């Protein structure tokens, strides 16, 4: 029995020893000291150190930062007791604002002042917000004309409860208005002209900040109108005895007015005088403008940065002839040394793989740090479609002729799940369910799943593209589609249905930043059925079930700065589609398309763009004609606006075997967010025609079926996260009697 008791005692001791070893590193208690207005459970819920969890010094350090991040405390210290582990957080609370008191204010209500005060009752005191609140009160009084207003602010704390009262004591003074404004030594302009530049006006409230801005505005006006030496002195402000109004005198020293004489350059080894003169905005004989001079100076610096001279210093020398009103300008240029690119750092990525951005760069480590290549790299990054902002920065290195580049990238939303309905002038009301991702897996892969449904259109699409197959600048993609839609023929009462089902494979090698090819194979079944048109009226329109097997090749030259909303550059393409023959199928044709688009920046942010499309299609072999669904149908939202699509208003209702479409647009932004245009307006003019044969081609405008026809109008473009939307109104200039003269169009996608 004694042996049994001894054995049991040893077992209990061993178990107790094991339990102690197991629990020695676990937290037995978490406590807080110094809490007065913050509940303990509020803080405990935010930290990771919990009773029963293993003790970790790193976790405690992180908990300290978490507690400070609550913005309830000025300081946090921690004490840790061992055996068992007890953690005590000793906190110093910020004062809790019980009351915000306003005294002395009569002209402005307490409610209005509290709107400006960023400190709030029942929140914890913040010294930065306290200073901000004082500044906002002073600004508010200044905006109301009380520039003499005095403010005292002081917080008082009850040490026992740690609760604070913040008092703002205001001495308002009088509201000060402008009695008179005098312009001293004015000769070149009438006072009314100069006073019209100023926001400070007679009988209006007096604001010193506004008067300071007015002074700069007047001086800028003079310098931009030939008076380079003009100077506007410090305004003389005189108060009346009651300090209720001021008289202002603005001293102006106009100086002589100059036109630009000779423009010369100091010698350099990089550019001829003619090359440098071509980038200047200023020209000999023009009235000197300070803004144009600075723009020219900047353009010269950019010209040298194009060759890697990032440290170029441009100092002008002015030689004036006041009696003649002429000023010669000599640009002294110190290029410095060529700068080479060191390392490239990419910051800000969260989803996108770094190599997706890096492979778009047109310059590598060791290359000349040439500004055009940096600009082109940024354009290519934007053209990925899922980048909202790219901010380049330059960092010096230990070598004076080597600079690192930092790209701060802000990602946008690459994926969208959308459901909705839209109205198209062709397909009418259409419901849409779409899943679209343009940065799949962070690798810039594109995936689009689309289902459209309506009374006139049923469409399903699956499309996927890899832009860099096997890390080479070659795209690879496929698409599957199944579409059925009602096609109008000549009138709303005449129609047929067209079904297309099939798929395609694509491969697109890129030769350089501008030149690319695209090769594809497409297999599709095409049906024409439910024809509601007399065969006598439309002998070429017959029911059909065709198999089209085709290959296409396309060459593209694209120098646009932004493929989604171009401001400059151009895009040109030439494509040939070969169907049938050795590829099988029962449809044989060759379709050739040429397209050119140009974009020219105008004043402000206006952009003028022109586009031209030319196409021909011919059947061969066993095909006796070109199917109606492969012909060119001109008129409508995608070609010549102001006319109905597929109604025979341009060309024939059967469609043509040759076509020419010309478009011109003048676009301007209405709403912009960062660097993206959200809402855009446009004026446009279109012209086009289609013919049964290229031999019938004519540039004559008129109302006949073989004539070119034109339309003009205006529109609005919306940029959504999924796709661009267009609302256009077009007016046709060559309608036949009985046709509607104008049309509204609402559609998805850009014009060109």
Structural class: alpha+beta
**Largest sheet composition:** 16 strands, antiparallel
- Supply the CATH superfamily name of the domain at 631-752: membrane protein fhac: a member of the omp85/tpsb transporter family
Proportion of residues in extended strands:
35-45%
The outline comes out as: globular
CATH topology of the domain at 631-752: Porin
Distance, first to last CA: 101 Å
- Report the radius of gyration as a whole number of Å: 37 Å
CATH architecture of the domain at 631-752: Beta Barrel
| Count of strand segments | 32
Low-confidence parts: 1-24
The portion of residues assigned to helices is 10-25%
**Average pLDDT, all residues:** 91
The CATH class of the domain at 631-752, by name, is Mainly Beta
Describe the protein in words.
The chain is of the alpha+beta class and 752 residues long. Among the domains are: 23-93, Roll (Ubiquitin-like (UB roll)); 96-171, Roll (Ubiquitin-like (UB roll)), CATH 3.10.20; 177-253, membrane protein fhac (Ubiquitin-like (UB roll)); 259-334, Ubiquitin-like (UB roll) (Roll); 340-411, Ubiquitin-like (UB roll) (Roll), CATH 3.10.20; 631-752, Porin (Beta Barrel), CATH 2.40.160. The protein is built from 11 helices and 32 strands. The strands form 6 sheets. It has a 16-stranded antiparallel sheet, with no helix packed on it. Strands 7, 8, 9 and 10 form a 4-stranded mixed sheet that branches. It has a 3-stranded mixed sheet with strand order 1-3-2, with helices on one face. A hairpin with a 3-residue loop joins strand 17 (415-424) and strand 18 (428-440). The relative contact order is 0.04. The model is unreliable at 1-24 (pLDDT under 50).
């Amino acid at each position: 029995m004694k042996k049994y008791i001894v054995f049991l005692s040893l077992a209990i001791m061993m178990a107790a020893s094991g339990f102690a070893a197991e629990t020695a590193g676990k937290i037995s208690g978490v406590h807080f000291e110094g809490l007065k207005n913050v509940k303990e459970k509020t803080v405990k819920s935010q930290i990771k150190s919990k009773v029963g969890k293993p003790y970790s010094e790193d976790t405690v350090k992180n908990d300290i930062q978490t507690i400070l991040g609550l913005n309830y405390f000025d300081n946090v210290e921690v004490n840790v007791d061992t055996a068992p582990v007890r953690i005590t957080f000793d906190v110093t609370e910020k004062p809790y604002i019980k009351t915000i008191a306003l005294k002395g204010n009569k002209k402005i209500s307490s409610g209005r002042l509290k709107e400006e005060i960023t400190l709030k009752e029942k929140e914890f005191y913040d010294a930065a917000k306290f200073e901000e609140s004082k500044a906002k009160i002073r600004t508010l009084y200044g905006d109301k004309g009380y520039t003499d207003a005095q403010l005292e602010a002081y917080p008082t704390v009850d040490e026992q409860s740690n609760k604070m009262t913040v008092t703002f004591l205001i001495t308002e003074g009088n509201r000060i208005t402008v009695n008179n404004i005098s312009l001293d030594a004015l000769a070149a302009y009438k006072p009314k002209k100069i006073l019209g530049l100023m926001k400070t006006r007679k009988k209006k409230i007096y604001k010193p900040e506004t008067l300071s801005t007015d002074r700069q505005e007047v001086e800028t006006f003079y310098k931009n109108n030939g008076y380079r030496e003009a100077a506007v002195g410090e305004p003389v402000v005189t108060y009346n005895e009651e300090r209720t109004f001021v008289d202002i005198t603005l001293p102006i020293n106009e100086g002589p007015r100059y036109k630009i004489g000779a423009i010369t350059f100091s010698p350099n080894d990089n550019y001829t005088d003619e090359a440098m003169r071509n980038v200047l905005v200023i020209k000999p004989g023009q009235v000197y403008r300070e803004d144009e001079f600075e723009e020219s100076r900047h353009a010269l610096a950019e010209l040298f940065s194009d060759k890697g001279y990032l440290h170029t210093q441009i100092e002008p020398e002015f030689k004036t002839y006041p009696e003649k009103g002429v000023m010669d300008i000599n640009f002294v240029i110190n290029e410095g040394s060529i700068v080479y690119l060191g390392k490239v750092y990419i910051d800000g990525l969260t989803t996108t793989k770094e190599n997706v951005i890096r492979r778009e760069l047109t310059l590598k480590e060791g290359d000349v740090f040439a500004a055009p290549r940096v600009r082109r790299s940024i354009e290519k990054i934007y053209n990925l479609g899922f980048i909202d902002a790219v901010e380049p920065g330059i960092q010096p290195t230990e070598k004076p002729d080597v600079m690192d580049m930092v790209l701060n990238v802000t990602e946008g939303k690459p994926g969208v799940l959308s459901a909705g309905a839209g109205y198209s002038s062709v397909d009418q009301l259409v419901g849409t369910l779409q899943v679209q991702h343009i940065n799949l897996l962070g690798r810039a892969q594109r995936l689009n799943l689309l289902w459209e449904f309506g009374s006139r259109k049923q469409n399903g699409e699956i499309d996927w593209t890899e832009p860099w197959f096997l890390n080479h600048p070659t795209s690879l993609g496929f698409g599957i589609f199944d579409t059925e839609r009602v096609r109008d023929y000549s009138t709303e009462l005449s129609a047929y249905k067209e079904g297309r089902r099939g798929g395609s494979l694509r491969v697109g090698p890129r030769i350089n930043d501008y030149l690319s090819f695209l090769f594809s194979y497409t297999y599709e079944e095409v049906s024409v059925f439910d024809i509601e048109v007399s065969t006598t009226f439309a002998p070429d329109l017959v029911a059909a079930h065709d198999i089209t097997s085709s290959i296409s090749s396309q060459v593209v030259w694209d120098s646009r700065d932004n493929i989604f909303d171009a401001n400059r550059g151009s895009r040109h393409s030439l494509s040939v589609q070969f169907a049938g023959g050795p590829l099988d199928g029962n449809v044989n044709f060759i379709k050739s398309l040429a397209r050119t688009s140009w974009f020219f920046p105008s004043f402000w942010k206006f952009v003028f763009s022109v586009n031209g499309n030319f196409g021909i299609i011919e059947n061969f072999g066993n095909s006796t004609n070109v199917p109606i669904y492969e012909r060119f149908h001109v008129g409508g939202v995608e070609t010549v606006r102001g006319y109905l699509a597929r109604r025979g208003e341009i060309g024939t209702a059967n469609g043509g075997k040759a076509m020419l479409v010309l478009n011109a647009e003048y676009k301007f932004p209405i709403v912009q967010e960062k660097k993206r245009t959200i809402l855009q307006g446009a004026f446009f003019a279109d012209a086009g025609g289609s013919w049964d044969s290229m031999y019938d081609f004519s540039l004559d405008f008129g109302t006949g079926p073989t004539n070119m026809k034109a339309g003009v109008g205006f529109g609005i473009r919306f940029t959504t996260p999924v796709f661009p939307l267009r609302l256009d109104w077009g007016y046709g200039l060559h309608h036949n009697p009985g046709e509607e003269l104008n049309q509204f169009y609402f559609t998805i996608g850009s014009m060109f």
